[in-house]
Design a protein that fits this description.
Blueprint lengths: L1 H15 L14 H7 L4 H10 L9 E6 L5 E7 L4 E6 L13 H9 L16 E5 L2 E11 L4 E6 L4 E7 L6 E7 L5 E6 L15 H4 L2 E9 L4 E12 L4 E6 L7 E6 L16 H4 L5 E8 H9 L4 E3 L2 E4 L1 H7 L2 E7 L2 E6 L5 E6 L4 E6 H9 L5 E2 L5 E2 L2 H4 E6 L4 E6 L5 E6 L4 E6 L4 E7 L4 E7 L8 E8 L15 E7 L6 E8 L7 E5 L13 E2 L4 E2 L10 E5 L2 E9 L2 E3 L2 E5 L3 E8 L8 E5 L4 E5 L4 E6 L5 E6 L12 E7 L18 H26 L7 H29 L3 H31 L7
Parallel strand pairs: 11-16, 36-39, 38-44
Antiparallel strand pairs: 1-2, 1-32, 2-3, 4-5, 5-6, 6-7, 8-9, 9-10, 10-11, 12-13, 13-14, 14-17, 15-16, 18-19, 19-20, 20-23, 21-22, 24-25, 25-26, 26-27, 28-29, 29-30, 30-31, 33-34, 35-36, 36-37, 39-42, 40-41, 40-43, 43-44
Helix pairs in contact: 11-13, 12-13
Bound molecules: [4Cu:2S] cluster (CUK) and dinuclear copper ion.
Length: 764
């Protein structure tokens, strides 16, 4: 069946494109014909075969990419590079109702600062929760450089659950990197500022401006960051950059680079050389080596001050307790990546040709022996760079970030200026291969490449510029993610994926088999808390509560109607809708949009979501479902009637004008009986198999059973009216009976198809 469909589509497309081409000719082309017509080489065909995913196929890895200034995240499959989802994080996302239902508005509100709601975010670094240094596929985190904030996303439903704002920093960059067992999410400041959102003049820069790093405590069971159990380290105003957590032997430590240890402040408008000159003047900046385990103990011992109610360990305490050590690192460093075995830390240098490999053991030896080269102006001990080095490897111009391979000692580093990826051996210190990318790569991502067990296979280059790679779409170009095959000795470029979202910065990829997202919510779930919504109702118990000044609707949605369908209110009323999607069938999402309001919900199966209209203005507000959910989707509609002041309430709908007869009823009734025969046939097939071994089918059967119960209910009503010769109501309820049957039949057929495709066995 699949084959004939594909062939048919190809034919339709071929006919559609058929200008100047003999009809049907393209569909009959051989592989060689296509290669010739499209000017494809054997290499191209090989790349296509490595990435092409046939219809219905699945990807091996799932990538989560930052969406830059969109404030969102992007989810795509590897190797197909097919985009699967955008996740609303720091900004509203209408498709998901994110920022439009009351539940998600609460989440976005957590991200407001001083009462101001932000409608952009600058996401940079996603990170997946880890257990013993490997991705566990449960939680996702991402930072917002601009405001600064960290968000928590559940990988059960790919929805944002929480946003925390940083109480002490004005700006950040080094988030959201997790420690090895997701004890903490780290967030490091970038532009120094007085801690706690305060003012100080720039001539107080050295004394009052500060950098720092926050350790956000993550409660895995609750899926929440706990601000009350989190703390920050006050750091010198060195413009801290990216951070990564130690692993194995370096577990409990973290490595944070910086790029303006000069503490330079620009001012080009008053004749001073700009930031870029002053911040890159010295030959080295500082890698901050942080003993976060010890810092945690110091925090738990109460040795901190509070700024805006948040615990901050001061520089003096840090120096006294020995929590942070500094090591000079190469000119204008960027990136800080710990090798999978936890023995080495690789740092790039934007203005250096080397990747610097620090040896954790050598760092420890100096700390133990208290062998310091000196102290910085804030009393932090400085280690000798040469004594901390494993090696420095000349990779090319502008090495930035490093990711790792499944093969031991193999690393990949992005070369921004050269527009290349370098493959190299960090144990031996030698370059193995280079590949050109297009253009100016920033981050790069290998599969699970920052864990203790990288998976190899693929690398994605996250490029800053696309320039000439795609069809032109105006001066603002798409971003370019390039897929590279790293399974052999030589890297091979496979695919260019345009990304029409903000600058992607970083991405992480996880084996698809480690993710276990749900397909439906437990009935009546508030998806933003994963708890039972107090507003959920069962079918049959929908109701409208009226109190002076307030109308509260507790309703349900199912193919293809809202219950209730007509809601009346008085001008000035606060109107609150609570909808529960009672469907159990996969992908049967309904929407709820109210014309001329900002109400737009996405109701996935089982979800309960709410929308509030404050002080409604008099008028007629049609509402409707926004997802094409069934053949009668357009009929899934209703009215919110808001009476202008002074008008009285009428509950009666006008006569429809339609009058049905006994003949109409009998015809519909017979139709229902015939449909039941079809349904019984499908049910007979399903129950003759081992369908209970297939959870998706079990869920579909539950859903179909629900529908058949509704059908029975409608039939009883129809027959009741028929006995009273009320053919109008009898006919309408008979029709509704049929509507439920149609849904049951649809679900039954899905179940049957699934069983056929998954090799179900006959058991009776
Ligand atoms: S950063 Cu290094 S290239 Cu991680 Cu924000 Cu963009
Ligand atoms: Cu529900 Cu369309």
């Amino acid at each position: 069946m699949r084959r004939s469909f594909t062939k048919g589509s190809a034919l339709i497309i071929a006919l559609g494109l058929g200008l100047g081409v003999a009809g049907g000719a393209l569909a009959d082309e051989s592989l060689q014909d296509v290669m010739k017509r499209r000017n494809l080489s054997d290499q191209d065909m090989l790349a296509a075969a490595k990435t092409f995913t046939p219809t219905g196929g699945r990807d091996e890895f799932i990538a989560f990419s930052s969406g830059g200034q969109s404030g969102q995240m992007m989810v795509y499959g590897i190797p197909s590079m097919r985009i699967l989802k955008f996740i609303g994080v720091f900004t509203p996302e209408p498709w998901q109702g994110y920022g439009f239902d009351d539940e998600s508005k609460k989440v976005l509100k957590e991200g407001a600062l001083n009462g101001e709601d932000f409608t952009y975010g600058d996401t940079h670094h996603p990170n997946i929760s880890k257990t013993n240094g490997d991705y566990d596929g449960e939680w996702l985190f991402i930072n917002d450089k601009a405001h600064p904030r960290i968000a928590v996303i559940s990988l059960k439903d790919f929805e944002t659950r929480q946003i925390v704002t940083n109480p002490v920093f004005q700006n950040e960059h080094g988030g959201a990197f997790v420690t090895n067992n997701t004890e903490y999410v780290m967030e490091a400041a970038q532009l120094p500022a007085p801690l706690g959102h305060k003012y100080a003049p720039l001539d107080k820069f050295n004394d009052e401006y500060r950098g720092g790093i926050t350790y956000w405590k993550f409660n895995r069971e609750k899926g929440k960051i706990e601000p009350e159990n989190s703390f920050s380290l006050e750091l010198p105003p060195y413009s801290q950059d990216l951070v990564s957590a130690g692993k194995g032997p370096s577990e409990g430590w973290a490595f944070l680079n910086s790029f303006c240890a000069e503490r330079y402040v620009g001012g080009i408008e008053s004749g001073r050389p700009p930031f870029e000159a002053g911040c890159s003047a010295n030959d080295s900046d500082f890698l901050h080596v942080i003993d976060w385990k010890k810092a945690e103990a110091v925090y738990k011992a109460g040795k901190f001050t509070k700024i805006n109610g948040h615990a901050v360990i001061t520089l003096k305490t840090i120096a006294d307790e020995g929590l942070v050590y500094l090591i000079p690192e190469a000119k204008s460093p960027h990136g800080s990546d710990v090798t999978p075995d936890g023995k080495f830390i690789v740092v790039g240098g934007k203005l250096d040709t080397h990747a610097t490999v620090f040896d954790f053991q050598k760092i420890q030896d100096q700390i133990k022996a208290k062998k310091f080269a000196g102290k910085d102006p804030y009393g932090l001990p400085i280690l000798n760079m040469q004594d901390s080095l494993h090696t420095q490897v000349a990779l090319g111009l502008g090495p930035l970030h490093t990711q790792f391979d499944s093969k031991p000692c193999i690393a990949y580093t992005s070369l921004y200026v050269d527009s290349q990826v370098a493959k190299w051996d960090y144990c031996e210190g030698k370059v193995l291969d280079k590949i050109s990318i297009h253009y100016n790569i920033g981050h790069l991502m290998t599969m699970e490449g920052d864990t203790v067990h990288p998976k190899g296979h693929y690398l994605v280059a996250l490029n800053k510029l696309a320039i000439d790679r795609f069809n032109p779409v105006g001066p603002l170009h798409p971003q370019n993610h390039q897929l590279i095959d790293i399974s052999g000795d030589k890297m091979k470029l496979l695919y260019d994926m345009p990304v029409p979202l903000g600058e992607p910065h970083w991405a992480v990829a996880i084996a698809a088999s480690t993710l276990h997202p749900t397909v439906r919510y437990k009935y009546g779930t508030d998806s933003r808390t994963e708890e039972a919504s107090p507003y959920a109702v069962r079918p049959g118990s929908e109701h409208i509560d009226r109190t002076p000044g307030k109308v509260e609707v507790f309703g349900t949605v199912i193919r293809s109607h809202f219950t209730p369908e007509i809601v009346e209110a008085q001008e000035g009323d606060k109107i609150i809708f609570h909808w529960t999607n009672t469907e159990r069938a996969e992908d049967e999402t309904h929407g709820f949009a109210v014309s001329d309001t900002n109400v737009n919900l996405s109701l996935e199966p089982g979800k309960t979501a709410s929308a509030t209209i404050d002080a409604a203005k008099g008028g007629v507000y049609p509402y409707y479902c926004t997802e094409f959910c069934s053949a009668l989707h357009l009929e899934m509609e209703g009215y919110l009637l808001v009476r202008p002041k002074g008008q009285v309430m009428t509950t009666k709908a006008a006569s429809t004008g339609a009058t049905y007869t006994k003949a109409d009823y009998d015809k519909q009734y017979q139709g229902c009986l015939d449909t039941q025969v079809v349904i019984d046939g499908v049910v007979g097939y399903i129950t003759s198999t081992n369908y209970t071994d297939f959870q998706p089918v079990v869920d579909l059967v539950t859903d179909a059973t629900d529908q058949l119960n509704f059908a029975k209910d409608a039939r009883t009503k129809a027959e009741g009216y028929a006995t009273k010769n009320d053919w109008q109501n009898a006919m309408l309820w008979a029709n509704q009976w049929w509507q439920y049957q149609v849904k049951a039949a649809d679900i039954g057929l899905r179940a049957k198809t699934y069983l056929e495709q998954h090799g179900a066995k006959k058991i009776k």
